[in-house]
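Appendix B, Record 12. Input sequence as logged:
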Amino acid sequence: MEGLRAQDPARIGEFTLLARLGAGGMGRVYLGRSPGGIQVAIKVIREDIAEYPEALARFRREVDTVRAVRSVYTASLVDASLDAPPYWLATEFVPGPTLLAATRDAPLPTALATRLFAALAEGLAVVHQHGVIHRDLKPHNIILAPAGPRLIDFGIARAAEHTHLTHTGHAPPGTPGYTAPEVLLGEEAATAADVFALGATMAAAATGRAPYGGGEWAVVSYRVVHGEIDVAGVEPELAALIRACVAREPARRPGLRDVVQRCGVGSALASEPAYQALAGRGERVPADLPTAVAAGLVPPGHGTPTAPGWQPPMQPPVQPPMVPRTPTRLDGQAAGPGRRGRRTGLVVGAAMAVAVLATVVTQWLLPGDVDGDGAVEDPGDGEPTWFSTGSGLVEMSPSADAETTGEPPRLDPDFTATEVWQPDAGFCSLPAAERLENLQYSVDADSHPDRVEIGWRLKFPPEPGDMDAPYYVAAALRPPPDPENNGSGGFSTVSATESFDLLAGDPTQWTDVTYPDDFRNPIPLEEVSGDWTVIFYHVQSPTEAGSVACSGFTRP
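Logged structural output:
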Protein backbone atom coordinates (compact mmCIF):
# COMPACT_ATOMS: atom_id res chain seq x y z
CA MET A 1 0.00 0.00 0.00
CA GLU A 2 1.31 3.43 -0.95
CA GLY A 3 0.30 7.00 -0.34
CA LEU A 4 -1.52 9.05 -2.95
CA ARG A 5 0.62 11.27 -5.13
CA ALA A 6 0.09 14.74 -6.50
CA GLN A 7 -1.26 13.45 -9.82
CA ASP A 8 -3.80 11.15 -8.15
CA PRO A 9 -7.38 12.34 -7.85
CA ALA A 10 -9.06 12.78 -4.49
CA ARG A 11 -12.18 10.99 -5.68
CA ILE A 12 -13.26 8.63 -8.43
CA GLY A 13 -16.96 8.58 -8.98
CA GLU A 14 -18.54 8.67 -5.55
CA PHE A 15 -15.56 7.04 -3.88
CA THR A 16 -13.05 8.92 -1.74
CA LEU A 17 -9.53 7.63 -2.33
CA LEU A 18 -7.51 6.59 0.73
CA ALA A 19 -4.36 4.99 -0.75
CA ARG A 20 -2.77 3.28 -3.70
CA LEU A 21 -3.00 -0.50 -3.65
CA GLY A 22 -0.76 -1.17 -6.63
CA ALA A 23 -0.10 -0.65 -10.30
CA GLY A 24 0.23 -2.77 -13.40
CA GLY A 25 0.39 -2.59 -17.15
CA MET A 26 -3.28 -1.63 -17.46
CA GLY A 27 -3.42 1.09 -14.83
CA ARG A 28 -3.54 1.77 -11.10
CA VAL A 29 -5.56 0.31 -8.26
CA TYR A 30 -6.73 2.51 -5.40
CA LEU A 31 -8.31 1.89 -2.02
CA GLY A 32 -11.55 3.83 -1.86
CA ARG A 33 -14.42 4.42 0.53
CA SER A 34 -18.04 4.81 -0.46
CA PRO A 35 -20.27 7.49 1.12
CA GLY A 36 -21.82 4.72 3.20
CA GLY A 37 -18.46 3.49 4.49
CA ILE A 38 -17.86 0.46 2.25
CA GLN A 39 -14.23 -0.08 1.29
CA VAL A 40 -13.57 -0.83 -2.38
CA ALA A 41 -10.64 -1.54 -4.67
CA ILE A 42 -10.82 0.69 -7.75
CA LYS A 43 -8.91 -0.17 -10.92
CA VAL A 44 -8.46 2.79 -13.28
CA ILE A 45 -7.28 2.05 -16.80
CA ARG A 46 -4.44 4.21 -18.05
CA GLU A 47 -5.42 6.96 -20.47
CA ASP A 48 -2.89 5.97 -23.11
CA ILE A 49 -3.90 2.30 -22.83
CA ALA A 50 -7.54 3.24 -23.31
CA GLU A 51 -6.67 4.49 -26.80
CA TYR A 52 -6.04 0.91 -27.93
CA PRO A 53 -9.30 -0.87 -28.84
CA GLU A 54 -7.97 -4.29 -27.81
CA ALA A 55 -6.94 -3.03 -24.37
CA LEU A 56 -10.26 -1.32 -23.79
CA ALA A 57 -12.09 -4.45 -24.93
CA ARG A 58 -10.07 -6.49 -22.46
CA PHE A 59 -11.00 -4.10 -19.65
CA ARG A 60 -14.67 -4.31 -20.60
CA ARG A 61 -14.43 -8.11 -20.55
CA GLU A 62 -12.96 -7.95 -17.07
CA VAL A 63 -15.89 -5.86 -15.87
CA ASP A 64 -18.36 -8.28 -17.50
CA THR A 65 -16.57 -11.24 -15.95
CA VAL A 66 -16.52 -9.80 -12.44
CA ARG A 67 -20.19 -8.89 -12.82
CA ALA A 68 -21.09 -12.40 -13.98
CA VAL A 69 -19.13 -14.36 -11.39
CA ARG A 70 -20.99 -13.84 -8.15
CA SER A 71 -19.44 -16.09 -5.54
CA VAL A 72 -18.07 -16.13 -2.02
CA TYR A 73 -14.78 -17.09 -3.66
CA THR A 74 -14.42 -13.84 -5.61
CA ALA A 75 -14.61 -10.10 -4.96
CA SER A 76 -17.99 -8.72 -6.03
CA LEU A 77 -18.40 -5.86 -8.47
CA VAL A 78 -19.59 -2.65 -6.79
CA ASP A 79 -19.62 -0.16 -9.68
CA ALA A 80 -17.95 0.62 -12.98
CA SER A 81 -17.65 3.44 -15.51
CA LEU A 82 -17.21 2.35 -19.13
CA ASP A 83 -18.99 5.02 -21.16
CA ALA A 84 -16.25 7.66 -21.23
CA PRO A 85 -12.75 8.21 -19.81
CA PRO A 86 -11.65 7.64 -17.16
CA TYR A 87 -12.62 3.97 -17.34
CA TRP A 88 -12.69 2.22 -13.98
CA LEU A 89 -14.22 -0.61 -12.02
CA ALA A 90 -14.73 -0.92 -8.29
CA THR A 91 -14.92 -4.22 -6.44
CA GLU A 92 -15.29 -4.95 -2.78
CA PHE A 93 -11.99 -4.63 -0.96
CA VAL A 94 -10.84 -8.01 0.35
CA PRO A 95 -8.51 -7.75 3.38
CA GLY A 96 -5.70 -10.23 3.77
CA PRO A 97 -2.33 -11.08 2.19
CA THR A 98 -1.86 -12.81 -1.12
CA LEU A 99 -0.86 -16.45 -1.00
CA LEU A 100 2.51 -15.37 -2.37
CA ALA A 101 3.09 -12.95 0.49
CA ALA A 102 1.86 -15.42 3.10
CA THR A 103 4.30 -18.11 1.98
CA ARG A 104 7.32 -15.92 1.32
CA ASP A 105 9.02 -16.81 4.61
CA ALA A 106 7.99 -20.48 4.80
CA PRO A 107 5.88 -22.95 2.80
CA LEU A 108 2.53 -24.16 4.05
CA PRO A 109 2.44 -27.25 6.25
CA THR A 110 0.84 -30.26 4.59
CA ALA A 111 -2.47 -30.16 6.47
CA LEU A 112 -3.05 -26.48 5.74
CA ALA A 113 -1.93 -26.82 2.13
CA THR A 114 -4.39 -29.68 1.61
CA ARG A 115 -7.29 -27.69 3.05
CA LEU A 116 -6.38 -24.69 0.92
CA PHE A 117 -6.12 -26.96 -2.13
CA ALA A 118 -9.69 -28.09 -1.59
CA ALA A 119 -11.03 -24.57 -1.02
CA LEU A 120 -9.36 -23.18 -4.13
CA ALA A 121 -10.54 -26.10 -6.25
CA GLU A 122 -14.09 -25.53 -5.06
CA GLY A 123 -13.87 -21.82 -5.77
CA LEU A 124 -12.45 -22.40 -9.23
CA ALA A 125 -15.22 -24.88 -9.97
CA VAL A 126 -17.79 -22.21 -9.14
CA VAL A 127 -16.05 -19.80 -11.53
CA HIS A 128 -16.23 -22.45 -14.25
CA GLN A 129 -19.93 -22.95 -13.55
CA HIS A 130 -20.40 -19.32 -14.56
CA GLY A 131 -18.83 -20.14 -17.91
CA VAL A 132 -15.55 -18.35 -17.15
CA ILE A 133 -11.95 -19.56 -17.31
CA HIS A 134 -9.59 -17.60 -15.08
CA ARG A 135 -6.43 -18.20 -17.18
CA ASP A 136 -4.05 -16.55 -14.71
CA LEU A 137 -4.38 -18.42 -11.43
CA LYS A 138 -1.20 -18.14 -9.35
CA PRO A 139 -0.21 -17.27 -5.76
CA HIS A 140 -0.32 -13.56 -6.62
CA ASN A 141 -4.03 -13.72 -7.49
CA ILE A 142 -5.25 -15.47 -4.35
CA ILE A 143 -6.07 -13.44 -1.25
CA LEU A 144 -6.25 -15.23 2.08
CA ALA A 145 -9.24 -13.39 3.50
CA PRO A 146 -10.43 -14.16 7.05
CA ALA A 147 -13.59 -15.81 5.71
CA GLY A 148 -11.67 -17.95 3.22
CA PRO A 149 -9.55 -17.53 0.08
CA ARG A 150 -10.68 -15.25 -2.74
CA LEU A 151 -9.73 -15.43 -6.41
CA ILE A 152 -8.90 -12.04 -7.89
CA ASP A 153 -7.66 -10.43 -11.12
CA PHE A 154 -9.89 -11.59 -13.94
CA GLY A 155 -8.15 -9.24 -16.37
CA ILE A 156 -7.44 -11.98 -18.91
CA ALA A 157 -10.33 -14.29 -18.03
CA ARG A 158 -12.51 -15.36 -20.92
CA ALA A 159 -15.78 -17.10 -21.50
CA ALA A 160 -15.22 -20.80 -22.06
CA GLU A 161 -16.29 -20.55 -25.69
CA HIS A 162 -13.74 -17.81 -26.49
CA THR A 163 -10.43 -19.24 -25.38
CA HIS A 164 -8.51 -20.10 -28.53
CA LEU A 165 -5.53 -18.01 -29.58
CA THR A 166 -6.25 -16.61 -33.01
CA HIS A 167 -3.51 -14.00 -33.47
CA THR A 168 -0.34 -15.50 -34.82
CA GLY A 169 2.67 -14.40 -32.83
CA HIS A 170 0.82 -13.30 -29.73
CA ALA A 171 1.74 -14.97 -26.49
CA PRO A 172 -0.60 -17.16 -24.50
CA PRO A 173 -2.21 -15.67 -21.43
CA GLY A 174 -0.96 -16.27 -17.95
CA THR A 175 2.38 -16.37 -16.15
CA PRO A 176 5.39 -18.61 -16.92
CA GLY A 177 5.42 -21.60 -14.61
CA TYR A 178 1.65 -21.50 -14.14
CA THR A 179 0.47 -21.54 -17.76
CA ALA A 180 -0.48 -24.99 -19.03
CA PRO A 181 1.65 -26.68 -21.73
CA GLU A 182 -1.16 -26.79 -24.25
CA VAL A 183 -1.66 -23.04 -23.90
CA LEU A 184 2.06 -22.41 -24.37
CA LEU A 185 1.83 -24.44 -27.57
CA GLY A 186 -1.04 -22.37 -28.90
CA GLU A 187 -3.92 -24.70 -28.11
CA GLU A 188 -7.14 -23.91 -26.33
CA ALA A 189 -7.14 -22.57 -22.77
CA ALA A 190 -9.96 -24.75 -21.46
CA THR A 191 -10.94 -25.51 -17.88
CA ALA A 192 -8.12 -28.05 -17.63
CA ALA A 193 -5.65 -25.18 -18.00
CA ASP A 194 -6.98 -23.72 -14.75
CA VAL A 195 -6.51 -27.13 -13.11
CA PHE A 196 -2.88 -27.08 -14.20
CA ALA A 197 -2.44 -23.58 -12.77
CA LEU A 198 -4.01 -24.74 -9.49
CA GLY A 199 -1.54 -27.62 -9.24
CA ALA A 200 1.40 -25.32 -9.96
CA THR A 201 0.09 -22.82 -7.40
CA MET A 202 -0.14 -25.46 -4.71
CA ALA A 203 3.35 -26.70 -5.55
CA ALA A 204 4.67 -23.20 -4.94
CA ALA A 205 2.69 -22.91 -1.69
CA ALA A 206 3.85 -26.31 -0.43
CA THR A 207 7.53 -25.87 -1.30
CA GLY A 208 8.14 -22.13 -1.18
CA ARG A 209 9.81 -22.45 -4.59
CA ALA A 210 8.91 -21.68 -8.18
CA PRO A 211 7.02 -24.72 -9.48
CA TYR A 212 9.25 -25.03 -12.55
CA GLY A 213 12.30 -23.17 -11.31
CA GLY A 214 13.54 -19.71 -12.13
CA GLY A 215 15.07 -18.25 -15.25
CA GLU A 216 13.98 -16.44 -18.36
CA TRP A 217 10.52 -16.77 -19.80
CA ALA A 218 11.43 -19.22 -22.53
CA VAL A 219 13.51 -21.39 -20.18
CA VAL A 220 10.71 -21.74 -17.64
CA SER A 221 8.17 -22.41 -20.38
CA TYR A 222 10.39 -25.12 -21.85
CA ARG A 223 10.46 -26.85 -18.46
CA VAL A 224 6.68 -26.68 -18.27
CA VAL A 225 6.34 -28.41 -21.63
CA HIS A 226 9.16 -30.94 -21.24
CA GLY A 227 10.15 -31.10 -17.57
CA GLU A 228 8.69 -32.08 -14.22
CA ILE A 229 7.19 -29.94 -11.50
CA ASP A 230 9.22 -29.39 -8.35
CA VAL A 231 7.53 -31.15 -5.43
CA ALA A 232 10.68 -32.27 -3.65
CA GLY A 233 10.02 -32.59 0.08
CA VAL A 234 6.24 -32.52 -0.26
CA GLU A 235 4.24 -35.22 1.52
CA PRO A 236 3.70 -38.06 -1.02
CA GLU A 237 -0.10 -37.94 -1.17
CA LEU A 238 -0.17 -34.18 -1.66
CA ALA A 239 2.67 -34.39 -4.20
CA ALA A 240 0.75 -37.04 -6.15
CA LEU A 241 -2.32 -34.80 -6.36
CA ILE A 242 -0.21 -31.89 -7.54
CA ARG A 243 1.39 -34.06 -10.22
CA ALA A 244 -2.02 -35.22 -11.37
CA CYS A 245 -3.20 -31.64 -11.77
CA VAL A 246 -0.17 -30.70 -13.90
CA ALA A 247 -0.26 -33.74 -16.18
CA ARG A 248 0.92 -32.73 -19.66
CA GLU A 249 -2.20 -34.11 -21.31
CA PRO A 250 -5.25 -32.05 -20.29
CA ALA A 251 -7.50 -35.11 -20.40
CA ARG A 252 -5.42 -36.80 -17.70
CA ARG A 253 -5.93 -34.01 -15.18
CA PRO A 254 -8.61 -34.59 -12.53
CA GLY A 255 -11.76 -32.52 -12.42
CA LEU A 256 -11.98 -29.88 -9.72
CA ARG A 257 -14.65 -31.77 -7.80
CA ASP A 258 -12.35 -34.81 -7.85
CA VAL A 259 -9.58 -32.66 -6.42
CA VAL A 260 -11.85 -31.60 -3.56
CA GLN A 261 -12.79 -35.21 -2.88
CA ARG A 262 -9.17 -36.40 -2.93
CA CYS A 263 -8.23 -33.73 -0.38
CA GLY A 264 -10.62 -35.33 2.10
CA VAL A 265 -11.21 -32.12 4.05
CA GLY A 266 -13.15 -32.58 7.28
CA SER A 267 -13.31 -29.04 8.66
CA ALA A 268 -13.80 -25.48 7.48
CA LEU A 269 -10.60 -23.79 6.35
CA ALA A 270 -11.55 -20.45 7.92
CA SER A 271 -11.91 -22.11 11.33
CA GLU A 272 -8.32 -23.34 11.33
CA PRO A 273 -6.06 -21.28 13.65
CA ALA A 274 -3.14 -21.75 11.24
CA TYR A 275 -5.15 -20.25 8.40
CA GLN A 276 -6.33 -17.32 10.50
CA ALA A 277 -2.74 -16.65 11.48
CA LEU A 278 -1.86 -16.32 7.78
CA ALA A 279 -4.95 -14.26 6.97
CA GLY A 280 -4.02 -11.85 9.74
CA ARG A 281 -0.78 -10.89 8.01
CA GLY A 282 -2.53 -8.49 5.66
CA GLU A 283 -1.78 -4.78 5.80
CA ARG A 284 -3.84 -2.56 8.06
CA VAL A 285 -5.92 -0.23 5.94
CA PRO A 286 -7.36 3.15 6.91
CA ALA A 287 -11.05 3.17 7.69
CA ASP A 288 -11.69 6.76 6.60
CA LEU A 289 -10.05 9.88 5.19
CA PRO A 290 -8.83 11.34 8.52
CA THR A 291 -7.15 8.04 9.35
CA ALA A 292 -5.53 7.94 5.91
CA VAL A 293 -4.26 11.50 6.33
CA ALA A 294 -2.90 10.71 9.80
CA ALA A 295 -1.13 7.64 8.39
CA GLY A 296 0.52 9.72 5.68
CA LEU A 297 -1.36 7.95 2.87
CA VAL A 298 -3.25 11.08 1.82
CA PRO A 299 -1.48 14.46 1.88
CA PRO A 300 -3.38 17.04 3.94
CA GLY A 301 -5.74 18.96 1.71
CA HIS A 302 -5.05 16.63 -1.21
CA GLY A 303 -7.03 17.27 -4.37
CA THR A 304 -10.55 18.38 -4.94
CA PRO A 305 -13.63 16.34 -5.84
CA THR A 306 -13.05 14.94 -9.27
CA ALA A 307 -14.90 16.47 -12.19
CA PRO A 308 -16.72 14.01 -14.44
CA GLY A 309 -14.10 14.43 -17.16
CA TRP A 310 -11.03 13.87 -14.97
CA GLN A 311 -8.27 11.98 -16.74
CA PRO A 312 -5.42 10.18 -14.98
CA PRO A 313 -2.13 11.54 -16.36
CA MET A 314 -0.12 9.31 -18.65
CA GLN A 315 3.01 9.94 -16.58
CA PRO A 316 3.63 11.41 -13.16
CA PRO A 317 4.72 15.06 -13.17
CA VAL A 318 8.50 15.28 -13.26
CA GLN A 319 10.95 18.10 -13.91
CA PRO A 320 11.76 18.95 -17.52
CA PRO A 321 14.48 16.81 -19.07
CA MET A 322 17.12 19.55 -18.70
CA VAL A 323 16.39 19.91 -14.97
CA PRO A 324 15.71 16.34 -13.82
CA ARG A 325 15.51 14.84 -10.38
CA THR A 326 19.05 14.03 -9.24
CA PRO A 327 19.09 10.44 -7.97
CA THR A 328 21.70 9.01 -5.63
CA ARG A 329 24.60 7.30 -7.34
CA LEU A 330 26.20 4.06 -6.17
CA ASP A 331 28.88 6.04 -4.32
CA GLY A 332 26.37 8.42 -2.75
CA GLN A 333 27.10 11.39 -5.01
CA ALA A 334 24.66 13.17 -7.27
CA ALA A 335 24.04 11.59 -10.64
CA GLY A 336 23.65 13.37 -13.92
CA PRO A 337 20.42 14.03 -15.78
CA GLY A 338 18.43 11.30 -17.43
CA ARG A 339 15.61 11.52 -19.94
CA ARG A 340 12.38 9.60 -20.02
CA GLY A 341 10.86 9.05 -23.41
CA ARG A 342 7.30 9.17 -24.58
CA ARG A 343 5.18 6.04 -24.77
CA THR A 344 4.51 5.41 -28.45
CA GLY A 345 4.18 1.73 -29.13
CA LEU A 346 2.73 -0.16 -26.19
CA VAL A 347 1.36 -3.51 -27.20
CA VAL A 348 -0.91 -4.74 -24.44
CA GLY A 349 -0.89 -8.33 -23.35
CA ALA A 350 1.69 -9.59 -25.88
CA ALA A 351 4.56 -11.88 -24.87
CA MET A 352 6.51 -14.72 -26.35
CA ALA A 353 5.02 -18.22 -26.68
CA VAL A 354 7.13 -21.30 -27.21
CA ALA A 355 5.31 -22.33 -30.38
CA VAL A 356 4.61 -18.86 -31.72
CA LEU A 357 7.87 -17.16 -30.91
CA ALA A 358 8.51 -15.50 -34.27
CA THR A 359 6.35 -12.45 -33.52
CA VAL A 360 7.49 -8.94 -34.32
CA VAL A 361 5.41 -7.40 -31.53
CA THR A 362 6.51 -8.59 -28.11
CA GLN A 363 6.19 -7.66 -24.49
CA TRP A 364 8.10 -9.96 -22.19
CA LEU A 365 7.61 -10.21 -18.47
CA LEU A 366 10.96 -11.29 -17.18
CA PRO A 367 11.52 -13.87 -14.43
CA GLY A 368 10.06 -11.53 -11.81
CA ASP A 369 6.70 -13.01 -12.72
CA VAL A 370 7.76 -16.44 -11.50
CA ASP A 371 8.03 -17.10 -7.81
CA GLY A 372 11.62 -17.76 -6.86
CA ASP A 373 13.80 -19.82 -4.66
CA GLY A 374 15.96 -17.01 -3.37
CA ALA A 375 17.82 -16.48 -6.64
CA VAL A 376 14.70 -15.49 -8.57
CA GLU A 377 12.02 -13.71 -6.59
CA ASP A 378 8.54 -12.70 -7.56
CA PRO A 379 7.35 -9.09 -7.35
CA GLY A 380 3.68 -9.73 -7.99
CA ASP A 381 2.10 -9.41 -4.57
CA GLY A 382 2.59 -5.74 -3.82
CA GLU A 383 5.26 -6.58 -1.18
CA PRO A 384 7.98 -7.65 -3.56
CA THR A 385 11.41 -8.98 -2.92
CA TRP A 386 13.31 -7.04 -5.53
CA PHE A 387 16.30 -7.67 -7.72
CA SER A 388 19.99 -7.30 -7.16
CA THR A 389 21.99 -5.14 -9.55
CA GLY A 390 24.05 -8.06 -10.78
CA SER A 391 24.13 -11.83 -10.98
CA GLY A 392 27.84 -12.23 -10.44
CA LEU A 393 28.54 -12.62 -14.15
CA VAL A 394 29.22 -8.90 -14.50
CA GLU A 395 30.65 -6.89 -11.62
CA MET A 396 28.72 -3.65 -11.22
CA SER A 397 30.53 -0.44 -10.37
CA PRO A 398 29.78 3.28 -10.52
CA SER A 399 29.85 4.65 -14.03
CA ALA A 400 33.12 6.34 -14.95
CA ASP A 401 31.26 8.79 -17.16
CA ALA A 402 28.85 9.74 -14.40
CA GLU A 403 31.72 10.21 -11.97
CA THR A 404 33.76 12.51 -14.19
CA THR A 405 31.19 14.38 -16.27
CA GLY A 406 27.88 14.03 -14.48
CA GLU A 407 26.42 12.68 -17.73
CA PRO A 408 24.88 9.23 -18.26
CA PRO A 409 27.36 6.84 -19.88
CA ARG A 410 26.78 6.00 -23.53
CA LEU A 411 27.99 2.86 -25.25
CA ASP A 412 31.04 3.23 -27.42
CA PRO A 413 30.26 3.34 -31.18
CA ASP A 414 32.37 0.18 -31.55
CA PHE A 415 30.64 -1.70 -28.73
CA THR A 416 30.05 -5.27 -29.92
CA ALA A 417 27.60 -7.98 -28.94
CA THR A 418 27.48 -11.75 -29.26
CA GLU A 419 23.74 -12.18 -28.68
CA VAL A 420 21.75 -13.27 -31.73
CA TRP A 421 17.96 -13.43 -31.90
CA GLN A 422 16.77 -16.95 -32.72
CA PRO A 423 13.11 -16.74 -33.77
CA ASP A 424 12.69 -20.49 -34.15
CA ALA A 425 13.82 -21.03 -30.56
CA GLY A 426 12.07 -17.93 -29.24
CA PHE A 427 15.03 -16.43 -27.41
CA CYS A 428 18.56 -15.15 -27.94
CA SER A 429 21.68 -17.27 -28.28
CA LEU A 430 23.01 -16.21 -24.84
CA PRO A 431 21.25 -15.71 -21.50
CA ALA A 432 21.20 -12.28 -19.89
CA ALA A 433 24.48 -11.39 -18.20
CA GLU A 434 22.65 -9.77 -15.31
CA ARG A 435 19.41 -10.69 -13.61
CA LEU A 436 17.02 -7.76 -13.60
CA GLU A 437 13.79 -8.99 -12.04
CA ASN A 438 10.49 -7.26 -12.62
CA LEU A 439 11.49 -5.74 -15.96
CA GLN A 440 8.96 -5.39 -18.74
CA TYR A 441 9.94 -4.48 -22.27
CA SER A 442 8.24 -4.17 -25.64
CA VAL A 443 9.40 -4.29 -29.24
CA ASP A 444 6.96 -3.19 -31.95
CA ALA A 445 8.43 -3.77 -35.41
CA ASP A 446 5.12 -4.39 -37.14
CA SER A 447 3.14 -1.16 -36.82
CA HIS A 448 5.40 0.91 -39.08
CA PRO A 449 7.47 -0.26 -42.08
CA ASP A 450 10.28 2.23 -41.52
CA ARG A 451 10.81 2.15 -37.77
CA VAL A 452 10.75 0.03 -34.62
CA GLU A 453 9.26 1.27 -31.36
CA ILE A 454 10.96 -0.04 -28.22
CA GLY A 455 10.18 0.54 -24.55
CA TRP A 456 11.03 -0.68 -21.07
CA ARG A 457 10.00 -0.16 -17.45
CA LEU A 458 9.71 -1.87 -14.07
CA LYS A 459 6.36 -3.45 -13.38
CA PHE A 460 6.48 -2.29 -9.75
CA PRO A 461 8.65 0.41 -8.13
CA PRO A 462 11.46 -0.85 -5.91
CA GLU A 463 11.24 -0.15 -2.22
CA PRO A 464 13.83 2.18 -0.61
CA GLY A 465 17.17 0.46 -0.30
CA ASP A 466 16.28 -2.42 -2.64
CA MET A 467 18.15 -1.03 -5.62
CA ASP A 468 21.06 1.35 -6.05
CA ALA A 469 20.69 4.40 -8.26
CA PRO A 470 21.46 5.37 -10.92
CA TYR A 471 20.77 2.27 -12.99
CA TYR A 472 21.43 3.23 -16.60
CA VAL A 473 19.69 1.25 -19.34
CA ALA A 474 20.21 1.55 -23.09
CA ALA A 475 18.60 -0.29 -25.98
CA ALA A 476 20.79 -1.61 -28.78
CA LEU A 477 20.04 -3.19 -32.14
CA ARG A 478 22.25 -5.73 -33.83
CA PRO A 479 21.60 -6.30 -37.55
CA PRO A 480 21.18 -9.82 -38.91
CA PRO A 481 24.47 -11.78 -38.99
CA ASP A 482 26.40 -11.44 -42.21
CA PRO A 483 26.61 -14.93 -43.75
CA GLU A 484 30.05 -14.15 -45.16
CA ASN A 485 31.63 -12.63 -42.05
CA ASN A 486 29.78 -13.85 -38.98
CA GLY A 487 27.03 -16.17 -40.07
CA SER A 488 27.48 -18.33 -36.99
CA GLY A 489 26.87 -15.42 -34.64
CA GLY A 490 30.28 -13.97 -33.88
CA PHE A 491 30.75 -10.40 -32.71
CA SER A 492 28.85 -7.54 -34.27
CA THR A 493 28.80 -3.80 -33.64
CA VAL A 494 25.49 -2.58 -32.27
CA SER A 495 23.60 0.64 -32.79
CA ALA A 496 22.59 1.97 -29.38
CA THR A 497 20.55 4.71 -27.75
CA GLU A 498 21.75 7.05 -25.08
CA SER A 499 21.51 5.68 -21.54
CA PHE A 500 18.45 6.33 -19.37
CA ASP A 501 18.39 6.10 -15.59
CA LEU A 502 15.77 3.47 -14.86
CA LEU A 503 15.21 4.90 -11.38
CA ALA A 504 14.82 8.57 -12.35
CA GLY A 505 11.22 9.65 -11.84
CA ASP A 506 8.69 6.82 -11.79
CA PRO A 507 10.34 3.55 -12.91
CA THR A 508 6.92 2.04 -13.67
CA GLN A 509 6.42 4.53 -16.49
CA TRP A 510 7.62 3.48 -19.92
CA THR A 511 10.84 4.81 -21.38
CA ASP A 512 10.44 4.78 -25.15
CA VAL A 513 12.82 5.04 -28.06
CA THR A 514 12.39 4.68 -31.79
CA TYR A 515 14.76 3.06 -34.25
CA PRO A 516 16.38 4.65 -36.22
CA ASP A 517 15.62 8.13 -34.81
CA ASP A 518 17.03 7.62 -31.32
CA PHE A 519 19.95 5.35 -32.22
CA ARG A 520 23.56 6.16 -33.08
CA ASN A 521 24.75 5.12 -36.57
CA PRO A 522 21.61 3.15 -37.45
CA ILE A 523 21.38 0.88 -40.46
CA PRO A 524 18.20 1.54 -42.50
CA LEU A 525 15.74 -1.28 -41.92
CA GLU A 526 14.89 -1.57 -45.59
CA GLU A 527 18.51 -2.28 -46.48
CA VAL A 528 18.93 -5.46 -44.42
CA SER A 529 16.49 -8.33 -44.26
CA GLY A 530 16.61 -11.13 -41.72
CA ASP A 531 16.53 -11.55 -37.96
CA TRP A 532 17.40 -8.38 -36.03
CA THR A 533 18.42 -8.59 -32.36
CA VAL A 534 17.25 -6.11 -29.70
CA ILE A 535 19.38 -6.04 -26.53
CA PHE A 536 18.75 -4.11 -23.33
CA TYR A 537 21.95 -3.23 -21.49
CA HIS A 538 22.81 -2.06 -17.98
CA VAL A 539 25.49 0.46 -18.94
CA GLN A 540 28.45 1.15 -16.63
CA SER A 541 30.76 2.95 -19.04
CA PRO A 542 31.19 3.27 -22.82
CA THR A 543 32.99 -0.07 -22.89
CA GLU A 544 31.33 -1.92 -20.00
CA ALA A 545 27.73 -3.12 -20.07
CA GLY A 546 25.82 -6.24 -19.09
CA SER A 547 22.76 -7.44 -20.96
CA VAL A 548 19.55 -7.63 -18.90
CA ALA A 549 17.14 -8.72 -21.64
CA CYS A 550 17.19 -9.76 -25.28
CA SER A 551 14.53 -10.01 -27.95
CA GLY A 552 14.26 -9.52 -31.68
CA PHE A 553 12.18 -9.31 -34.83
CA THR A 554 12.34 -10.40 -38.44
CA ARG A 555 12.38 -8.16 -41.50
CA PRO A 556 11.43 -9.82 -44.79
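Residues 361-555 form one domain.
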